[in-house]
Design a protein that fits this description.
The structure is a homodimer. The first copy, chain A, has about 200 residues and is mainly alpha-helical. The first copy, chain A, folds into two domains: about 55 residues, Arc Repressor Mutant, subunit A (Orthogonal Bundle), CATH 1.10.10; about 140 residues. In chain A, α5 packs across α6 and α5 packs antiparallel against α9. Chains A and B meet through α8 and α9 of A and α8 and α9 of B. Chain A binds a DNA duplex (30 and 30 nucleotides) through α1 and α3.
DNA sequence: TCAATACTGAACACTGTGTTCGGAAATATT
DNA sequence: AATATTTCCGAACACAGTGTTCAGTATTGA
């Protein structure tokens, strides 16, 4: 009935591989990591690897999709009621990044990791677009294209996150969110007024 | 006396290699370009390549440093008098990008090209920091760290540039600069007031 | 116990890297 | 023009990493 054990086994192997890659990414840049490195650390055979993943990049993506998903959820459901003066709360993101420091560092640090950043940026951008659109009354059109604003906000979030890491987290998540709001909201509010 | 010919010859070879790389980057991502590809396109021998550059990345950087330099100059000397309501004019940048479209596309498009973006961002960030500091009266301290603001502004500039490319340049350079000002300046001005 | 499924690891072909070196070609010097 | 110097050429080589194959082993489920 519950043939979960077989599946768990498969999952376990994949899990080991992901963990090995993540672990290695904390020590060296993604580009310089070898499939053999991963194999050694995970203690997994070569052919086993290739029976699960087409190549290194597929492994990377598979591991990162989970993280992205949880990040997106974190941002989209901040557990706070909507606020006309707050586009989105980035505090949960910074908090998440603080808790899972190593992981985020691995993500932000690497070179071939930009897929990741692009992906987050895309999701986040879309989410922000929706949020912005909901602010508009019908037949209103903002001075700046909504998709551009989404792109803008998403890139700022990630840019602040990167700065925060590169400078060893000199502020608390709440402070970082406050900075974000302070930098971004005035321009957004200004631009959302149809005839400024 | 004028032994320029020898130097020109060397320069010519290097130039051919750079051009070949740039040309290839317009067609495929940097990562997938082979040294042999470059050699073939430049019609240069293998050992000659390695007598000039340590590896592919060094060639990339050598070619890009020039571009970065000219971009930085463009931004730092916009030929416009300083303006208390304008942190920097990005119009020259967008204009430059329009004129040298292929090149910029190659720069923004690639994968391993992030060195480039990082470099520009660093220079630009520093320049903006200086500009911001000049706005402050002595013993004033802004609510948000100056370096963070520099990082923020630089990342927005590059982010807008990228959006502009990805969406086939739907606006004029002047319009893009206007959008930049509109999004960024309110938050900056707000944050520069020492006690808001 | 038997069959199915998942893992192993050695061997292999292949692609790309960076080095070496004898000789050719271009350039500079006299 | 003859010679010396510098630069370039390209084949050959050793090396590292990729992805595949396959016969054999270990695990699991009935």
């Amino acid at each position: 009935m519950d043939h979960g054990k077989t599946d768990r086994r498969v999952t376990r192997t994949r899990h080991l591989l992901r963990e090995a890659l993540m672990s290695l990414m904390r020590e060296q840049r993604y580009d310089s990591i070898t499939v053999q490195n991963i194999l050694d650390r995970a203690d997994i055979g070569r052919s086993t690897f290739y029976s699960h993943y087409r190549d290194k990049e597929e492994l990377l993506i598979s591991g990162l999709d989970d993280i992205i998903h949880s990040l997106i959820l974190t941002l989209e459901n901040p557990g706070v009621q909507p606020d006309q003066h707050k586009l989105l709360s980035t505090e949960p993101l910074f908090k998440h990044a603080q808790d899972e420091f190593q992981l985020h560092k691995a993500i932000m640090g690497g070179h071939g990791i930009n897929l990741m950043v692009q992906k987050i940026q895309k999701h986040l951008g879309r989410h922000i677009e929706d949020e912005l659109r909901s602010w508009l009354k019908e037949d209103e059109a903002p001075a700046i294209p909504i998709p551009l604003m989404g792109h803008y906000v998403a890139s700022v979030v990630l840019s602040l996150l990167r700065w925060w890491f590169d400078n060893n987290k000199p502020h608390s998540p709440a402070q970082m969110d406050a900075i974000f709001q302070q930098l971004v909201m005035p321009g957004i509010l200004e631009s959302m007024r149809p005839k400024g």
